[in-house]
Amino acid sequence: MKVAVASSGEGLNAPVDMRLGRCANVIVVDTDTMEFEVHSNPGALAGTGAGVAAAQVVADAGAEAAIAGNFGINSLRAFNSGGIAAYVGSGTVGQAVEALLAGELELVE
Protein backbone atom coordinates (compact mmCIF):
# COMPACT_ATOMS: atom_id res chain seq x y z
CA MET A 1 0.00 0.00 0.00
CA LYS A 2 1.14 3.56 -0.63
CA VAL A 3 0.80 6.01 2.24
CA ALA A 4 1.33 9.76 1.89
CA VAL A 5 2.73 11.58 4.92
CA ALA A 6 2.82 15.37 5.38
CA SER A 7 6.34 16.40 6.34
CA SER A 8 8.66 19.34 6.64
CA GLY A 9 11.61 17.13 5.70
CA GLU A 10 12.61 14.67 3.03
CA GLY A 11 12.99 11.20 4.53
CA LEU A 12 11.65 8.57 6.91
CA ASN A 13 13.30 10.33 9.87
CA ALA A 14 11.70 13.69 9.02
CA PRO A 15 8.94 14.93 11.33
CA VAL A 16 5.27 14.59 10.46
CA ASP A 17 3.93 18.06 9.71
CA MET A 18 0.94 19.23 11.72
CA ARG A 19 -0.81 20.63 8.62
CA LEU A 20 -1.27 18.74 5.37
CA GLY A 21 -2.12 21.83 3.32
CA ARG A 22 0.93 23.82 4.37
CA CYS A 23 3.52 21.04 4.66
CA ALA A 24 6.69 21.46 2.62
CA ASN A 25 6.67 17.91 1.28
CA VAL A 26 4.44 14.90 0.89
CA ILE A 27 6.43 11.71 1.39
CA VAL A 28 4.84 8.69 -0.26
CA VAL A 29 5.90 5.44 1.38
CA ASP A 30 5.40 1.93 -0.04
CA THR A 31 4.49 -0.01 3.09
CA ASP A 32 5.71 -3.31 1.62
CA THR A 33 9.29 -2.10 1.08
CA MET A 34 9.45 1.19 3.05
CA GLU A 35 10.87 2.82 -0.08
CA PHE A 36 9.67 6.38 -0.49
CA GLU A 37 9.33 9.29 -2.90
CA VAL A 38 9.40 12.96 -1.90
CA HIS A 39 6.90 15.29 -3.59
CA SER A 40 6.99 19.05 -3.10
CA ASN A 41 3.68 20.48 -1.96
CA PRO A 42 2.53 23.34 -4.20
CA GLY A 43 0.03 24.34 -1.52
CA ALA A 44 2.74 25.19 1.00
CA LEU A 45 2.97 28.80 -0.19
CA ALA A 46 -0.45 29.15 -1.82
CA GLY A 47 -2.69 31.99 -0.72
CA THR A 48 -5.78 29.78 -0.86
CA GLY A 49 -6.54 26.21 -1.80
CA ALA A 50 -3.58 24.70 0.05
CA GLY A 51 -5.49 21.66 1.30
CA VAL A 52 -6.87 20.82 -2.11
CA ALA A 53 -3.44 21.24 -3.73
CA ALA A 54 -1.84 18.90 -1.19
CA ALA A 55 -4.69 16.39 -1.59
CA GLN A 56 -4.09 16.42 -5.35
CA VAL A 57 -0.42 15.54 -4.79
CA VAL A 58 -1.53 12.61 -2.61
CA ALA A 59 -4.05 11.40 -5.20
CA ASP A 60 -1.64 11.82 -8.13
CA ALA A 61 0.93 9.71 -6.26
CA GLY A 62 -1.55 6.85 -6.00
CA ALA A 63 -1.70 6.83 -2.21
CA GLU A 64 -4.51 4.95 -0.50
CA ALA A 65 -4.05 6.74 2.82
CA ALA A 66 -2.65 10.02 4.15
CA ILE A 67 -1.14 10.91 7.51
CA ALA A 68 -0.78 14.40 8.99
CA GLY A 69 -1.14 16.09 12.36
CA ASN A 70 -4.34 17.73 11.16
CA PHE A 71 -6.50 17.99 8.04
CA GLY A 72 -8.59 20.88 6.79
CA ILE A 73 -12.16 20.39 5.63
CA ASN A 74 -11.30 20.85 1.95
CA SER A 75 -8.58 18.20 1.93
CA LEU A 76 -10.90 15.81 3.78
CA ARG A 77 -13.64 16.36 1.22
CA ALA A 78 -11.17 15.66 -1.58
CA PHE A 79 -9.98 12.48 0.15
CA ASN A 80 -13.54 11.30 0.81
CA SER A 81 -14.50 11.76 -2.82
CA GLY A 82 -11.33 9.97 -3.95
CA GLY A 83 -11.55 7.07 -1.50
CA ILE A 84 -8.36 8.04 0.36
CA ALA A 85 -8.32 7.42 4.11
CA ALA A 86 -6.97 10.20 6.38
CA TYR A 87 -5.22 9.47 9.67
CA VAL A 88 -3.89 11.70 12.46
CA GLY A 89 -0.25 10.89 13.19
CA SER A 90 2.87 12.33 14.78
CA GLY A 91 6.54 11.57 15.33
CA THR A 92 8.67 10.83 12.31
CA VAL A 93 7.37 9.75 8.92
CA GLY A 94 8.65 6.22 9.52
CA GLN A 95 7.09 6.03 13.00
CA ALA A 96 3.75 7.26 11.67
CA VAL A 97 3.70 4.64 8.91
CA GLU A 98 4.59 1.90 11.40
CA ALA A 99 1.80 3.14 13.73
CA LEU A 100 -0.67 3.02 10.84
CA LEU A 101 0.33 -0.55 10.01
CA ALA A 102 -0.09 -1.49 13.68
CA GLY A 103 -3.62 -0.02 13.73
CA GLU A 104 -2.66 2.70 16.21
CA LEU A 105 -3.72 5.82 14.27
CA GLU A 106 -7.06 7.59 14.44
CA LEU A 107 -9.09 7.63 11.21
CA VAL A 108 -10.48 11.10 10.45
CA GLU A 109 -13.99 11.09 9.05
Overview of the molecule:
The chain has 109 residues and is an alpha/beta fold. It has one domain (2-84, 91-108): Dinitrogenase iron-molybdenum cofactor biosynthesis domain (Nucleotidyltransferase, domain 5, 2-Layer Sandwich). Helices cover 28% and strands 26% of the residues. The protein has 3 helices and 6 strands, in the order βββαβαβαβ. Strands 3-2-1-4-5-6 form a 6-stranded mixed β-sheet, sandwiched between helices. A hairpin with a 5-residue loop joins β2 and β3 (36-40). α1 (50-60) runs parallel beside α2. The relative contact order is 0.24. The model has no long low-confidence stretch (mean pLDDT 95).
